Amino acid sequence: MAAVDVLRTPLCDTIGIELPIVQAPIGRVGSAALAAAVSNAGGLGMLGLSFDSDDEIRRTLRETRDLTDRPFGINLVLHRDQRGRLATALDAGRPRVVSFHWSALTSDSPYLRDAHAAGALVILAVGNADEARRARDAGVDIVVAQGLEAGGHVWGKVGSLALIPAVVDAVDPMPVIAAGGIGDGRGLAAVLALGAQAGWMGTRFVVADESGAHPDYRDRVVEATETDTVLSVGVFDRGFENAPVRTLDNSTLRRWREAGSPPIGKRPAEDEIVAHRTNGQPIARYDSMPAIADLTGDVEALANIAGQSAGVVRRREPAAAIVREVAEDAARILTSWREARERSRRR
Q1: Which residues, in sequence order, are CB contacts of 274 under 8 Å at separation 6+?
Q2: Domain ranges, residue 295
Q3: What is the CATH number of the domain that holds 52?
Q4: Quick one: 281 and 171 in the same domain?
Q5: Taking a C-beta distance cutoff of 8 angstroms, is the pair 181, 147 a contact?
Q6: Residue 38 near residue 16, CB atoms below 8 Å
Q7: CB 3.0 to 4.6 Å from 36: which of 60, 68, 236, 257, for a disulfide?
Q8: H-helix or E-strand spanning residue 146
Q9: pTM recorded for the entire structure
């Protein structure tokens, strides 16, 4: 039986995708090429637009539309007013899905109202069952249950194994997407068994050929183990202050810890410029900017965002190959479980 038949969930039909695999919107590390490749492979590609200018948003959405006619989504982190970016994205790209992170949404939220008015489904990241219930009651269509294992900015405080079934039970039959710790087909099969209707994967796609991550950053993810990430507060947060963020451990984190983990304003080498973009923009040591491809300098010292699933990421490869491998492995595992269960019933 084909993977698409084994893995198909109601969420797939709702969004219009073939496989329950969502590429996490990995911010400035993402790209139109990555999102389109995931969507073309049957999953849902996502674009992180939280820091982009209006012109950048229009260009990215135009490029994505040129590369795929499949559904894709956008993401905005609500640590600042994003109404302008949302309006630009809805006008320029008509995304199938709009996801939000880092805030609750109420029934009178302009973000919810405007996305729905444009015909988009609204996804909200939550960190516990109560947040999920409030999101459902506000009119959100789908929730992402983000476990503590996730890379990047981490909203929740509960591990995925405990979080996912709690959120599923709280909002059933509302679709739940699981995020945090999913790096291969085993992880996808596990979260589907817990009741989620899709897996939200970021770290695995950081190393995709179409990713906008710096080559050194991709290599570090491939070489990392499950213990090589650190969840920190007050380090890589210039422009996004006091937000917990999970990254690979590096020289900046070690210097900060050796100094006693001081607060903003007292961190060692706080104003040191460690890298530059090709346009000349300087990047300071504690900037929230991840190690993107067009940086030169000491990219190891920057935010090499990764979740604990880095421990199962073993190689760089095209996004379509990642989607295919994850889907086939998950389908094989789930089929094996079902066949074993049927054999047991016949005894």
Answers
A1: 283, 284, 285, 297, 298, 301, 302
A2: 215-310
A3: 3.20.20.70
A4: no
A5: yes
A6: no
A7: 68
A8: strand 142-146
A9: 0.96
| 236 and 139 share one domain | no
Identify which of 28, 55, 74, 47 has the alpha carbon closest to the alpha carbon of residue 283. 28
Q: Does residue 61 fall inside a structural domain?
A: yes
Tell me the pLDDT tens digit for each residue of 114-155. Answer: 999 999 999 999 999 999 999 999 999 999 999 999 999 999
Q: What is the edge-to-edge ordering of all strands in the sheet holding 245-248?
A: 152-153, 245-248, 229-232
At residue 219, what is the residue type? D
Q: Is residue 5 part of a domain?
A: no
* Helix/strand/coil (H/E/C) assignment for every residue in 168-212: HHHHCCCCEEEECCCCCHHHHHHHHHCCCCEEEECHHHHCECCCC
pLDDT given for residue 347 in this prediction: 67
Amino acid at the residue 242:
N
Q: How many domains does the chain fold into?
A: 2
CB count within 10 Å of CB 154 equals 22
d(CA 306, CA 220): 10
Q: How many residues does the chain have?
A: 347
Which residue, 202, 225, 199, 224, is CA-closest to 213? 202
Alpha-helical runs (H) found in the chain: 3-7, 10-15, 32-40, 54-67, 83-93, 110-117, 129-138, 160-171, 185-193, 203-206, 215-223, 251-258, 319-346
Cβ pair 202, 172 in contact under 8 A = no
Distance CA 328, CA 177 (A): 19
Q: Does 147 lie in the same domain as 187?
A: yes
Do 125 and 223 fall within a single domain? no
Helix and strand numbers, DSSP H then E, in the chain: 13, 14
On whether both 207 and 225 belong to a single domain, the answer is no
Pairwise CA distance, residues 178 & 168, whole Å: 10
Question: Is residue 22 very low, low, confident or very high in pLDDT (cuts 50, 70, 90)?
Answer: very high
Task: Report helix, strand or coil for 52.
Answer: coil
Helix (H, G, I), strand (E, B) or coil at 300: helix
Looking at the fold, whether 130 and 51 belong to one and the same domain comes out as yes
pLDDT at 1 over 70: no
